Amino acid sequence: MLKRAALISVVVLASAPAGALASAGDVAATHAYIRANYALNRASVSLIPRGEARIQSFNRKLAGECPRAGAGSPVTEVSQPMSYEVAVALWAIAYGTAASPIRTFVAAVKPLHWSNARLTHIARNYAASLHELSTLAVPDLCTDVRAWTASRFQTVPAGVSALDKRVEAIEGESIPRKLLAPFERGSDASLAARTRGLEIKLAENEFMVGQTDLIEVTETLGLPE
Fold it and tell me: Residue 32's domain spans which residues?
């Protein structure tokens, strides 16, 4: 896919002016990116049920090993890092479920380059963010919540704070459609539109189902939401 998208005639390369070369490169990079992003989102949507099943299994495991371990946690800002760690665990499971298509996406996007450095930066930062999320280790919630409780809800474990800060710093977004539109050719526009629909579905699932999962797991651990 990437090789086909990047093929440019040697004759054209030899004779075209610099502006045309940049345009040809932008078109090729855009085509490759749109195809890679579509494949990623299509695979991610298909993996939603598997990810949800893994989260439910995880919650059952917590219910068996440390039910209500954090019961009595104050409903204040001091306990927020503990609740946030639960969200991190759920993200680690969800993105980890999609690790394979994310690796494929990262491999496809990493070599892409646009004449506009902003596009190249957004694409690579997005790929790097997805890679980091998909390789997160699921934190040991039972151990951390027990340590939090043992401190009488005064001290958040250092590892929890460090993990929370690390994940909060992960920022990435797909390239905005308006930036790619000038370089779209052929079926690129329709494929980008289909990708947008998949992205919306993923976002809705993360918000609606993700919130339900977060509530269930925090309740299992006896933590505030």
Answer: 2-221
